[in-house]
UniProtKB/TrEMBL annotation:
Transmembrane segments: none annotated. One of its GO terms (molecular function) is acetoacetate-CoA ligase activity. InterPro entries: AMP-binding_CS, AMP-dep_synth/lig_dom, ANL_N_sf. Residues 31-72 form the AMP-dependent synthetase/ligase domain. This is AMP-dependent synthetase/ligase domain-containing protein.
């Protein structure tokens, strides 16, 4: 939880893992990012079908499978090259739409 009230800091001590906006964006104490290589079949998305033909069904998509499918669509269907620049507009709830161009080192 990030409190973004800008007229002074509010007391967020009673909210687990909450920080004030000013503390969140401060560059004073940025911890280094740690990246971990995960296996191909590591779960990336857990989604449910809409249930239009029956009860909703759970789907778990692997990180490797999703990445391969995105790359396939970009490389084979749109012929995108590393020298290309994309104007990629996506809704905030769809950040996965930004992953494929970044994985190909394409400028967004």
């Amino acid at each position: 939880v990030v409190s973004y009230i800008s007229d002074g800091k509010c007391d967020v001590s009673g909210i687990p893992k909450a920080v004030n906006w000013e503390d969140f964006i401060s560059k004073d104490d940025d911890p280094p990012l740690d990246f971990e290589q995960l296996p191909f079949d590591h779960p990336l998305y857990v989604m449910f079908s809409s249930g239009t033909t029956g009860k909703p069904k759970c789907m778990v998509q692997s990180s490797g499978g999703v990445l391969l499918n995105h790359l396939k669509e970009l490389i084979l269907s749109t012929d995108v090259k590393r020298s290309d620049v994309l104007n990629y507009i996506t809704a905030s709830e769809r950040p996965q739409n930004v992953i494929p161009p970044v994985s190909l080192c394409i400028t967004i």
